[in-house]
Design a protein that fits this description.
Strand content: 15-25%
Largest sheet: 7 strands, mixed
Shape: globular
Distance between the termini: 45 Å
Strand order of the largest sheet: 1-2-3-7-6-5-4
Number of helices: 17
Number of strands: 14
């Protein structure tokens, strides 16, 4: 109810700062004015594949949220891809060579202008229905309601700043160290508000090294985004112009992705100085000071990413549309999501060929259990009831981004041999059933360490 209230009330009243330009505006502008049919086809094809192959749920409004790079109704594969992405982000920041700790904070602040508020729609309706109130009285009543209403979280910075003093004991009050968190936040966007899957690293360091740490994390984050990309050059970093810096920031860097409709930010880094930390810990100045000789208050570097837009960027980056000729020299288009092996939601699909269905399914079920025990995500294609050709299966699994397809046939019952097809090369190999689990584990492990 609260989430619905935020969406309904804030979209009507527009009590928020218009400080973000939504991707949807660029997309709409692009769709209206672009004459490049190839780019238009890429956007349309990607969206349709994501619906057909269970990355997102169908529906025009949901597809619009997906294209805007905000949280939408994800399907099973979309949820798994997002989970993999968040897991890799978490590992990259908490398992770095520097001290980073995970936290789960709450935003307890009650002051501040332009904050999103969670308002009971019934209360607001009662105020608006009071016809005897003048315009000034109506505004006052609404402002009073907003003041006593809890704020809707727009980022994790406040929670990390509040956790600074207690967390500093973990490092014996030594700098630098960081606090990491992820979850859903509300973001004002084009006259309405939307939920965004956000990741946050708040880094505390000495004043003289804050600029170097900003550069360090900018390099590390760009390297991380490019690590999982099919076309790494589409990811880039840019310095934020001085006139577009946040009020407290002395410097800023943005990690950008080149979508078919233009550049969009994925992650933003700010050198925020000391002002916000001092504001949060009023009266505790001595507890904030670090250093033996010249004591100083730590500077704050924030690193914030929109992982819904990040997920969209990897899907867009991985989509390939290839023309391929068959034995009759007829050209057809092969669409494939070449997601990085670490991010791919499904590593292997199990299917059956010709032969006794019951026995083949039993073999598949045994293999499925082995894969699950080895933490290899598998798709039980053998459970389908309608007959499907191998070409149709390959098309389906390529669009799902499945790394390998394993086909069990009558020959497998006799010899133990099965057919393994690679998504990336389309090469089919014959392999003994006792080797397949180790083969997949080795391949995935190499991708993790690559």
């Amino acid at each position: 109810m609260f989430s619905r209230s935020v969406r309904n009330v804030l979209s009507r009243l527009q009590f928020f700062p218009e400080n973000l330009t939504p991707a949807s505006q660029n997309i709409k502008k692009y769709c209206k004015t672009s004459s490049d049919e190839e780019l238009d086809d890429h956007v349309r094809t990607l969206t349709q594949i994501c619906v057909d192959r269970h990355y997102i749920s169908p529906g025009e409004s949901n597809m619009e949220l997906f294209r805007r790079g905000v949280s939408c109704r994800y399907g099973p594969l979309g949820m798994e891809l997002r989970r993999n992405l968040l897991e890799q982000w978490w590992h990259s920041v908490t398992r770095s060579t520097h001290q980073v700790f995970g936290i789960n904070s709450t935003d307890t602040s009650t002051d501040g202008q332009g904050r999103l508020r969670i308002v009971e729609s019934g209360e607001l309706k009662l105020i608006l229905e009071q016809q005897e109130l003048s315009k000034e009285q109506l505004i006052q009543k609404v402002e009073e309601l907003l003041q006593r209403s809890p704020s809707a979280r727009t980022n994790f910075l406040q929670g990390a700043l509040e956790q600074f003093i207690p967390s500093s004991d973990l490092v014996n009050r030594k700098l630098p160290f960081g606090l990491a968190e992820s979850g859903l936040c509300f973001q004002p966007s084009g006259g309405s508000s939307a939920e965004v899957t956000q990741t946050s690293l708040v880094w505390f360091c000495s004043p003289r090294t804050s600029s170097q740490w900003l550069d360090h994390w900018a390099r590390q984050r760009l390297k991380w985004w490019r690590k999982f990309a099919l076309s790494p050059s589409h990811f880039s970093s840019v310095d934020v112009p001085e006139e577009k810096l946040e009020e407290v920031a002395s410097r800023g860097v943005k990690i950008m992705y080149k979508f078919p409709w233009g550049q969009e930010p994925l992650e933003t880094l700010w050198n925020r100085g000391v002002a916000e930390l001092l504001q949060v810990h009023k009266g505790a100045h001595s507890k904030l000071q670090y250093g033996d000789a010249r004591k100083s208050v730590p500077h704050v570097v924030s690193v914030t990413a929109n992982m819904d837009r990040g997920l969209l960027s990897f899907l867009s980056n991985s989509l390939q549309q290839l023309r391929k000729g068959n034995s009759k020299q007829m050209l057809r288009q092969r669409k494939v999501l070449k997601l990085h092996p670490v991010l791919a939601p499904v590593k292997v699909a199990l299917d059956i060929g010709k032969g006794p269905t019951m026995e083949l399914r039993q073999v598949c079920e045994g293999l499925l259990l082995e894969f699950l025990e080895a933490k290899i995500s598998a798709w039980p294609g053998y459970l389908k009831t309608l007959p499907t050709s191998l070409e149709q299966l390959n098309t389906k699994y390529d669009e799902m981004g499945v790394l390998f397809t394993v086909v069990i046939s009558e020959n497998s019952l006799e010899s133990g041999l099965l057919q393994v097809r690679s998504r990336d090369t389309t090469v089919k190999e014959t392999m003994h059933i006792s080797e397949i689990k180790n083969f997949l584990s080795t391949y995935i492990s190499a991708a993790y360490n690559g």
